[in-house]
Amino acid sequence: MIIALTATTQLGGIAWLIGRPFRQSLLVSLASYAVLSISAIWVAPAFGRTPLSCVPEKGGAHAGIIFCVTNRHYVTPELKSALNDIVDDLNTSFPGIQLGVLDASFPFLNDFPMLPHLSHNDGRKADLAFFYKDSDGRPLPGGTLRSPIGYFAYETGRSACPATRFDLHWDLNWLQRVWSKHELDIDRTSKLIEAATANPRIRKVFLEPHLQKRLDVNHPKVRFQGCYAARHDDHIHLQL
To answer: Membrane-crossing residues (predicted)?
Structure first.
């Protein structure tokens, strides 16, 4: 339990330990976790991290509530500034646009693992949600997700990797029928990648090859993440 809660929230294992000696251990653990998580907002800057907003707002980047609750919405000030610049760039074409952020990093300690990611351990990486349209072709607000956590809802396209059980490049074909049928918004998502690659702070953007072709992306910063990492046709990974 300690390992699982620490790997998913960083502070959950500590909160669980605090609650164990009490009769109402679950209640005490939840209260402890809330206190620790709120305190992290003010303590994290001492570790070079700052939280992203958890509230959707026009013309801004925000993390989904599940990522805020699990303390996975922290970035370095430099990355936060880069995300704000990207949103400002998008606003010129799409006034009032909202940018949804998925997993970023935990509030404390470099090289602290964030499962199931192979990176996201230094505040210098963040995953961005795609933009979608509804079944009538109307643009949905930024941060709208096809799956509850934003991951594993893959876009249709041929994977560049062979099927295997021993890596993170899961196909999960059986799960795809469960997710919403929102359509990828080619225009806004392409502009998002264009704004990210144009930003001098951003060094790499990971995206599956079939989506690079579909979105007409051709930039040296846009790369294939390899077959041993998670698929990147359900989100965009960028890093300083």
So the answer is: 26-48
